[in-house]
């Protein structure tokens, strides 16, 4: 099970750089989703990331200005999957099948559990199960992910869990990342 951190949409480049540096050893991927950044900020961030020796993968969301300049993995929150492959957000089996037709390498689905930002929104459990049953690509669950709920993502069969506020707004993201990695490792060895 992969661990994905997703930027909040209101982070400054220097904030995100610190968080990525702290999560490098514990997380598999970080998603850059910052619609208020300028193209110049995005390009400078891409350059900074490429100069590092990180093992954490950077996935750039199409909502981020300048995403077209990113040579790595791109995530499409809506519309078609990038020509270079990448991921797509889905909320139903029909959207999953469309994403797979478009050659998505992975999909992000949810909310799995009620997120802090929208506590009344959740994808019905039967729809989650149907998406997971039909998927031929990895499905990253998002919504309500934190250490105490990681087992639900694992038990339901998600390929990964996407964390927003539980990690990105933590006082010590690196420490939270280590705890989540240990919990993930524990779950995967049961």
State the helicity in percent bands.
25-40%
Tertiary shape:
globular
Number of domains: 1
The total of helices stands at 7
Assign the CATH class. Answer: Alpha Beta
How many strands in all?
Answer: 8
**Radius of gyration from the CA trace?**
16 Å
Mean pLDDT metric: 95
Q: Mind summarizing the main beta sheet?
A: 8 strands, parallel, barrel
CATH topology: TIM Barrel
* Proportion of residues in β-strands: 15-25%
CATH homologous superfamily title: Aldolase class I
- Distance linking N and C termini: 13 Å
Strand order of the largest sheet: 1-2-3-4-5-6-7-8
Please provide the ordered H/E string of secondary-structure elements. Answer: EHEHEEEHEHEHEHH
Task: Give an account of the 3D structure.
- This is Thiamine phosphate synthase/TenI domain-containing protein.
- This protein is an alpha/beta fold and 190 residues long.
- It has a single domain (2-188), classed as Aldolase class I (TIM Barrel, Alpha-Beta Barrel).
- Helices cover 37% and strands 18% of the residues.
- An eight-stranded parallel β-barrel has the order 1-2-3-4-5-6-7-8, surrounded by four helices.
- Helix 4 (125-134) links the parallel strand 6 and strand 7.
- The longest helix is centred in the C-terminal third of the chain and has 16 residues, at 173-188.
- The model has no long low-confidence stretch (mean pLDDT 95).
